[in-house]
Automatic annotation (TrEMBL):
Protein name: ComEC/Rec2-related protein
Keyword Plastid: no
Record field: transmembrane: 21-39, 45-64, 267-295, 302-318, 348-364, 401-424, 430-454, 502-519
Residues covered by the ComEC/Rec2-related protein domain: 252-513
Domain DUF4131 per the UniProt entry, residue ranges: 41-201
GO annotations of cellular component type: plasma membrane
Length: 532
């Protein structure tokens, strides 16, 4: 009987002790939801006081009552989440002046043409001109394009501008609301720190020398990295990449999706391959593998891994630190540390740790679609990949690769399909063949882009690689366009609300728990039979 009790205690320990960060992450998320819903009604100081009280009580119970202490730690985490959400919402709550104002600003996002207007992000440093602000205001500006002088063409990341216009509270775009009714544009803008919007006539602005001193040092670093990214994108064009081949390479390698036209975006979305256009774990994993191979023969593994991680985080900063990239970089960092220490490399705890980092840095990124899809995809892979992969026992390496990619695709789809249907009203039926196309192509494009930039001292070789890169991108575009036009490529017009979305995930979670419990019971009975 002692074997049975040992097995049971081992299973209980696994349940209670191996995923503490998951419980903390869930408590933090619950706190952010509470704080976001009550920030207009509850004082920030009340959240801080309650968090301090719970933390003090948890410390007094140190090694006295572990269960009560654990509950108090989770309560403290919840209250910290509420405090962070409350503080972030108050930072974004700006009362706009009731009349037009003159201001000086810096362009902090590459301007994009949208019909007759030029849309760009501005960081206002003086309001009105001559009066420095304590905290720069991050706004979204729509400049009416002047087709006679074309002055708008001179505006790029880092440009200075002086303008006079009416600052207005954020409001949703009608076109976006019609196409994606569940997508909250105002919330998305808040996630990115934008607090107001404005419309500027051609006669009400002119270029000026940029003044970066009022900007926070992190913002200045980000601006310099964005300028570097623009120079790399210009290099792509100089090497002959153009049209949608350039757009796809720019999106996959540097996270710039501004040049993707609607047809390309639609083809990727219908085929179920939109994820390859958004930088995520796939892209960083490919880059990490390449850098590890290049530095694999280095004598000191710790130094090699340190160099690889430095390159990964520099790249993450270069592409703007979107949530999916920060999540991937955080998990790769933990993976590398576990590799050096000989510990378990990938777990739900690792994912939870990455979520905690992101939510502490910006609690409102909980409402970012990229954050939601990225974490759900990885969580789903961690839960379902191994059980699916064990269904078949294959000996051929190529067959193992095919089956492994199939299992990863199905696992990720299980977690993200309900959310995609909620936001986009679509289910892509050919996501499996699409992944078999995009994974090799994305690998070739990322490797090719790295070697293309490294070959700068050898122009003929660099031009040859750029030409090959363009052909791969054109082939991928043509393949996914053909796939998206096949009969039954997607189910359109799906309409589900928040309640239905919640029910779908509850059913999925319940099914998962039941299957895992049945597997554990079966496994335990086999062990008992073995000991008997």
């Amino acid at each position: 009987m002692w074997e049975k009790s040992y097995i049971c205690s081992m299973e209980r320990g696994k349940t209670l002790d191996t995923r503490p960060l998951l419980r903390i992450a869930l408590s933090l998320i619950a706190g952010i939801l509470v704080g976001d819903g009550l920030w207009l009604h509850v004082s920030l100081w009340l959240w801080l006081a309650l968090a301090a009280i719970c933390l003090g009580m948890a410390l007094t119970l140190f090694r006295v009552h572990r269960t009560a202490q654990g509950a108090l730690i989770l309560c403290t985490t919840l209250l910290v989440g509420a405090t962070l959400a409350d503080w972030q919402n108050r930072q974004l709550h700006v009362v706009c002046p009731p009349h037009p104002v003159s201001y000086e600003a810096v362009v902090v996002g590459e301007p994009q043409v949208r019909g007759k207007i030029l849309r760009c992000e501005l960081m206002i440093t003086q309001l009105p001109i001559g009066r420095m602000l304590d905290h720069p205001l991050h706004i979204q500006a729509s400049l009416l394009r002047d087709t006679f002088t074309n002055r708008w063409r001179s505006l790029h990341v880092g440009s200075g501008i002086r303008a006079a216009s009416q600052l207005e509270p954020l409001r949703p775009y009608s076109a976006t609301q019609n196409r994606r009714p569940h997508f909250d544009v105002v919330r998305w803008l808040h996630v990115h720190g934008i607090v107001a919007q404005t419309f500027v006539l051609p006669s009400n602005w002119h270029a000026s020398p940029p003044n970066l001193r009022p900007l926070p040092w992190l913002q200045r670093i980000r601006l310099h990295l964005l300028l570097l990214r623009q120079r790399l994108l210009q290099r792509y064009r100089m090497l002959g990449l153009n049209h949608q081949s350039y757009a796809v390479v720019a999106a996959m390698t540097l996270g710039d999706k501004s040049q993707l036209n609607r047809n390309t975006q639609s083809a990727y979305a219908v085929a179920g391959a939109s994820h390859v256009l958004a930088l995520s774990g796939l892209h960083l994993g490919i880059i990490y593998t390449l850098l590890t191979l290049l530095l694999g023969r280095f004598r000191h593994r710790a130094v090699a891994q340190g160099a690889v991680l430095t390159a990964i985080w520099t790249y993450a900063a270069l592409v703007g630190l979107p949530p999916s990239v920060v999540r991937s970089a955080s998990m790769l960092t933990i993976y590398a540390l576990c590799l050096l220490l000989g510990r378990q490399r990938a777990s739900v705890n690792t994912l939870a740790f990455a979520a905690i980092i992101l939510l502490i840095a910006n609690p409102l990124c909980l409402w970012d679609m990229g954050f939601q899809l990225s974490f759900l995809a990885v969580l789903s892979i961690l839960i379902y990949y191994r059980p699916l992969y064990r269904l078949l026992h294959l000996q051929n390496p190529f067959a193992q690769w095919i089956w492994g990619l199939t299992c990863i695709s199905i696992a990720a789809q299980l977690g993200t399909a309900p959310l995609v249907m909620y936001y986009f009203g679509r289910f892509s039926c050919y996501f499996l063949p699409a992944n078999f196309l995009v994974v090799p192509a994305a690998t070739a494009i990322l490797y090719g882009a790295v070697f293309m930039l490294l070959a700068t001292p050898i122009p003929p070789l660099q031009q040859y690689i750029a030409t090959a890169l363009g052909h791969v991108a054109d082939w991928l575009n043509a393949s996914l366009t053909a796939l998206s036009t096949l009969p039954g490529s997607s189910i359109e017009g799906i309409v589900i609300g928040r309640l239905q979305l919640f029910i779908i995930y509850m059913i999925l979670c319940s099914f998962t728990v039941i299957v895992r419990y049945a597997w554990k019971v079966r496994h335990q009975s086999r062990l008992e039979a073995f000991y008997k």
